[in-house]
Write a structure and sequence with these properties.
- The chain is of the alpha/beta class and 532 residues long.
Length: 532
């Protein structure tokens, strides 16, 4: 889902993204994922995996996807140039994938690199690969708190042990790609993974809705997602009576299905909610699974989306709603606190007791045409910064760096603990090339808006560098080695928002077309580093 047009002043992804992925051309990259997009329970993790894999394949990379085989799907399939090999069920997929991966590694063609997507239980791919084969983990969400919601105590504990100490012991210092700053933090604080951690957020898939699709006349809330316990949709149901009294004509659409449907329907009955199917006149309307066009049209007409989950890996449904100009209400929890910019693209709250109050506030603000227009524009602008081309390029840079080590072009292991990430603003003339740093560092040009003042001591036009695993002193030294005059540079520790802005706007345009404020937001033109 998404919008078919870029935000005002933004450019389509530049050739730099294609070049970053093109560095892998001719390599054999194997993706491991629990499911593929044809699986009846496919979701955001599958969309990430195959969107990136397809862009790799289009760039000349030989791509194989090893995944599960649900009933009715063939063992082999070609999906946009990605060779999909299916085998095993919900849990049998793990030994099945390891057997097939081991065979591929021993084959004459071999395996150049593995993208190991961890969905709670790891695949433990290093166990069947030569030690020199690069493995990059993709981490969507830390499941330590979710296992007890789905499994009995002993089974849940096994899952927790496999995810935390298990992955730490097997993957060791292998790099981790996380889809949000929250997940990147939890990779260290909860799972204890010691390797370098890079942020590679999801893209937003463009959606097409009829040109005459307008906002609903009456207050309308649309929620899209699987009906599972950790989404906590019962909190929204419990808020509906008070909201309906405050906002006559309120309609709440729930799009999606899942194991929690029966419990939620029963809870709605206990609350006395008027509920019915998609075409009913009820306040609460259950849609189940819908086709994409129906889903997108319903979402485009919404005033608001609400995500009461206790935590997400990222919050892709929020960004998909934002792309259609729909702001969001969510809790200030992992993933969602990254996806929602409080006051700009939606509202964040801290406690379940305040959900009805916050949704009431949101619907009230959205009645004001000027405020609604600002929020809808802000939501579209934020979502437009996340593109699959950039996602693929960011992952490709991590793989390229690991392959360089494996090929012994980089003889020293430069990987180091990356708890420190530094953002540097430094002078750079319009005609000067951006400095060449490590493959995984980001450098982008930035300028201040006309009439605004840059921070004291910094140039009005320049560039910003984001260096993983570097303290301010180390960042200054690295830039000095790259020939950057840093005596007027401004350095500070990078925040999660800094990482999102840098990755979300990467590979858009290298001109000074995007103004920035004191937060140093700007147009991104990566100089993903050269061979050093």
């Amino acid at each position: 889902m998404g919008t078919s047009a870029y935000a005002p002043g933004e450019q389509p992804p530049a050739d730099a993204a294609a070049r970053a992925v093109g560095r892998l051309a001719g390599r054999h990259v194997v993706f491991l994922n629990w499911r593929d997009l044809e699986h009846p329970q496919a979701g955001g993790a599958e969309l990430f995996c195959q969107s990136v894999a397809a862009l790799f394949a289009a760039a000349g990379v030989k791509v194989t996807l090893l995944t599960a085989q649900p009933p009715g799907l063939p063992v082999l399939a070609d999906a946009d140039g990605v060779m999909v090999h299916r085998g095993g069920g919900a849990f049998g997929v793990y030994p099945s994938v390891l057997r097939r991966l081991a065979r591929l590694a021993r084959s004459p063609r071999g395996v150049d690199a593995v993208v190991d997507c961890q969905n709670g239980i790891p695949f433990f791919s290093p166990l069947v690969l030569p030690a020199a084969t690069p493995v990059v983990q993709v981490l969507h969400h830390v499941h330590q708190k979710q296992f007890p919601l789905f499994f009995p105590g002993p089974v849940a504990r096994v899952g927790q042990l496999l995810e935390a100490p298990g992955s730490r012991w097997v993957y060791r210092r292998r790099p981790v790609v996380a889809v949000s700053p929250s997940t990147r933090d939890e990779a260290r604080t909860v799972l204890g993974l010691p390797g370098p951690r890079f942020l590679v957020p999801n893209g937003v898939t463009p959606a097409t809705v009829p040109a005459d699709t307008g906002q609903a006349a009456s207050p309308t809330v649309v929620c899209v997602g699987r009906l599972v316990p950790h989404k906590r949709l019962h909190l929204l149901l419990e808020a509906i009576p008070a909201l309906a009294a405050r906002h006559p004509g309120l309609v709440v659409h729930l799009i999606g299905d899942g194991p929690d449907r029966e419990r939620l329907t029963a809870r709605a009955g206990e609350l006395g909610l008027d509920q019915g199917g998609p075409d009913s006149g009820a306040v609460l309307r259950w849609h189940g699974h819908t086709d994409a066009a129906t889903r997108d049209t319903l979402l485009a007409r919404a005033w608001l989306t609400v995500n009461p989950s206790h935590g997400e890996g990222w919050g892709l449904s929020v960004l998909e709603a934002n792309a259609l100009g729909v702001p969001a209400v969510a809790f200030r929890v992992p993933g969602l606190r990254d996806a929602v910019r409080d006051g700009e693209t939606g509202w964040l709250l801290d406690t379940p007791a305040r959900l009805a109050e916050t949704v009431d506030l949101a619907l009230t603000e959205l009645r004001d045409p000027a405020r609604a227009a600002a929020l809808r524009a802000g939501a579209r602008r934020w979502a437009a910064g996340f593109r699959w081309e950039a996602t693929a390029a960011l992952l490709a840079t991590v793989l390229d760096a690991e392959l360089a080590r494996a090929d012994r072009r980089d003889r020293r292991d430069r990987r180091r603990p990356d708890d420190a990430v530094t953002l540097v603003r430094f002078p750079l003339g319009r005609d000067e090339p951006t400095p060449r740093l490590r493959r995984t560092d980001l450098v982008y040009r930035a300028s201040f808006a006309e009439g605004s003042e840059p921070p004291a001591g910094t140039p009005a036009d320049g560039a910003v560098a984001l260096l993983y695993g570097a303290s301010p002193a180390q960042a200054r030294a690295a830039l000095t080695r790259a020939g950057v005059p840093v005596h007027t540079a401004l350095l500070r520790p990078a925040t999660g928002t800094d990482l999102l802005l840098a990755t979300g706007r990467a590979w858009s345009s290298d001109s000074y077309t995007q103004p920035v404020g004191a937060s140093w937001e700007g147009t991104v033109s990566p100089s993903i580093a050269a061979d050093r």
